[in-house]
Design a protein that fits this description.
A two-stranded antiparallel ribbon has the order 1-2. The N and C termini lie far apart (43 Å). The protein contains 5 helices and 2 strands. The protein is mainly alpha-helical.
């Protein structure tokens, strides 16, 4: 639950920063709208995005991962259609906004430390599993 809250905070911060720096891409009426849209975006990223990534796996492989930005843009448009005071003007605006949100999220998530004191990018894993291997000499 704590990892989801951290991820949600990072997403909200990234969306707010992109909306502040590039108001032609994303706009919102109130701060509460931003919080609600980022919560819905976090829920969509947790539940809908893995299914979309699995279904679009051939396109992701052919484009060497760049199709993931298209999936992110579609999720951003989906959230924009559900939360009406949260505006994304079109597909290309959502595409460029998803790239910027991904960059800001990646940069901002690198500031959080794991329980072992090292910095890791935040993923869905609770802890890093150690491999039990035997070295043969």
């Amino acid at each position: 639950m704590q990892a989801f809250l951290i991820r949600w905070f990072i997403t909200a911060f990234a969306v707010m920063l992109v909306a502040w720096m590039f108001p032609s891409l994303i706009s919102y009426d109130t701060f509460g709208t931003l919080v609600g849209a980022s919560l819905l975006l976090g829920i969509a990223n947790a539940f809908i995005r893995p299914v979309l990534l699995l279904l679009s796996l051939p396109f992701i492989i052919v484009t060497m991962g760049l199709f993931i930005f298209v999936v992110n843009a579609l999720l951003l448009l989906f959230v924009s259609s559900l939360v009406h005071p949260f505006h994304v003007n079109g597909f290309w605006e959502a595409f460029f906004a998803s790239i910027l949100i991904s960059i800001v999220s990646l940069a901002f998530s690198s500031f959080f430390r794991a329980s072992d004191g090292r910095m890791h990018l935040i993923t869905h894993h609770e802890r890093v599993k150690r491999a039990r291997v035997r070295v043969i000499e």
